[in-house]
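Quick start: read one record
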Amino acid sequence: MTQQVTSFHPPQRTLMGPGPSDVNPRILEAMSRPTIGHLDPAFIGMMDEMKSLLQYAFQTENALTMPVSAPGSAGMETCFANLLEAGDTAIVCQNGVFGGRMKENVERCGATAIMVEDEWGKPVDLDKLEAALKAHPEAKLVAFVHAETSTGAQSDAAAIAKLAQKHDCLTIMDTVTSLGGTPIKMDEWGIDAIYSGSQKCLSCTPGLSPISFSERAADVVRNRKTKVQSWFLDLNLVMGYWGEGAKRAYHHTAPINALYALHESLVILQEEGLENAWTRHRLHHNALKAGIEAMGLSFLVEEPYRLPQLNSVTIPQGIDDAAVRSQLLNDYNLEIGAGLGVMAGKVWRIGLMGHSANKTNVLLCLGALDAVLGHMGADINRGVAVEAANQVYSG
């Protein structure tokens, strides 16, 4: 006999992992608004506003700016599938998990990936990149992760783009963790294709991927010799729906209520102001940093390259990573993230993203870590973390 299933009611958690982040109640309310048709004139008006709000968030005037109706991984694939054809060469910078995913995308397009590899936790090495560009004059594009979610390291996007331009290469930049948390200046830096996710510093629900393509990149898409291998992600088709004007061509049924949510999250970002959002993330990072260091713990990433919104904290010797995270979840309803790949079991990833980046969360996290690690007998300085963070706030 089939078991009678009832409605699902999730527990109330504080999300301080690598994503998703806490969702602003305004965004949850936006999702509950009446569903209308994806070709309704009112919805098309909202789509135009969405484009304008995303242009502000990315700091661009690109006409080809929109959210892909799928998570950030689909935004990544949209960039590679549209810009690469079989036989092309792409230079991929890898300093964590997500550079490896870029390589996968290049190869699945039938292109060759030239890897520029750096130690996890370090930024992209510009000298290594320049050497690869000189060695491969046939390269069509340079792809890199601005804010590597697996480590919390940020690379110099402006310098990478400048090198790519010098060698007549397009750039693809992953901003899944950086959008809304640290500065992104797409036009000023000369980035050609950019993608992000809705669930990190935008504090929206997961499932949408904002993208933007420069006019130079859009020309490459329009003038391809072969069809984009993904029908769903082919921008030549999608732009019939997300293009200009009141008349739109049906491509797919957009995730209407999820787009209400992204619209609201971008309105919230506009109300706060980009610079204020960047400053807020930095403030709460500084408070968390003071508490973590007072406890005697350290960060994986050196300070000049450290993301404020994604903090990789080294796990004390002899402490069981999973046991700590489990106790934080069970006793405090607090989620922090595990290390990925080579960092598994070595670091915790503590997120301070969007709506999650606030004083209450920082103090909760520090107090909870202090209590759990102290109970487990970790070699830490007990009872000082919260006070150290409060010193930053009062200062």
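The longest strand covers residues 89-94.
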